[in-house]
Design goal:
heterodimer, A: 113 residues, mainly beta, B: 115 residues, globular
Chain lengths: 113, 115
């Protein structure tokens, strides 16, 4: 069965520090990969997605992620975080039918100003 | 434009009771998916409906059921509530099924507490 692992439970950074959140998936078929973000008090929203093509995908608010097939990874990066990036981040992969999302447990990012 | 709306916002029920949660999709969206998010975990897929028909089901017991109405709104029902059903229940809508072509937009969720 498909699964997603996010190894960092809680990350604490200072503003301007660089960010990398790990995500590994287990799925042998065609993968669609996603990063979602949930800011405090707000809905889950899509940050970026990968379906095919260029393995480096860029999303909103300066985030990017790299799909490395050989490592089954899809890590999220941002060169310089801001206080407003404080949120919970979820990595997700498609289910076999390609219609439902399978989420990791999430990583809480706290950015201090 | 209004996003996905869910009601109620919060709900407290007793073990053994039944609960109905409601979701209104974004206008024009015909597919609704339900997810359960237990504290400290990521959302877990429960059901997907499209054009009033069930299109997918996650690994949840038969106590969980759902339906979609002609106006594409949806209800999630949970019978014989257990303490472990305490969670945030999220509804997501999309134009149609198929994650590759149709983004899922999430609502604010209904927080269910079972005592």
């Amino acid at each position: 069965a498909q699964s997603v692992s996010q190894h960092n439970h809680h990350v604490i950074l200072s503003e301007a520090a660089s960010l990398e959140l790990g995500c590994n998936y287990s799925y042998g078929g065609t993968v669609n990969l996603f990063w979602y973000v949930q800011y405090p008090g707000q809905h889950l929203q899509l940050l970026l997605k990968y379906f095919s093509g260029d393995p480096l995908v860029k999303g909103i608010k300066g985030f990017e992620a790299e799909f490395i097939k050989s490592k089954f990874s899809f890590n999220l990066r941002k060169p310089s975080v801001q206080w407003s990036d404080t949120a919970e981040y979820f990595c997700a992969v498609n289910d076999q039918a390609g219609t439902a999302l399978i989420f990791g447990k999430g990583t809480t990012l706290s950015v201090s100003s | 434009d209004a996003g996905v709306t869910q009601s109620p916002t919060h709900l407290i029920k007793t073990r053994g009771q039944q609960v109905t949660l409601r979701c209104s999709p974004i206008s024009g969206h015909k597919s609704v998916s339900w997810y359960q998010q237990v504290l400290g975990q990521g959302p877990q897929f429960i059901f997907q409906y499209y054009e009033k028909e069930e299109r997918g089901r996650g690994n949840f017991p038969d106590r969980f059921s759902a339906r979609q109405f002609p106006n594409y709104s949806s209800e999630l029902n949970v019978n014989a509530l257990l303490l472990g059903d305490s969670a945030l229940y999220l509804c997501a809508s999309s134009l149609a099924p198929g994650l590759k072509n149709y983004e899922q937009y999430f609502g604010p969720g209904t927080r269910l507490t079972v005592t």
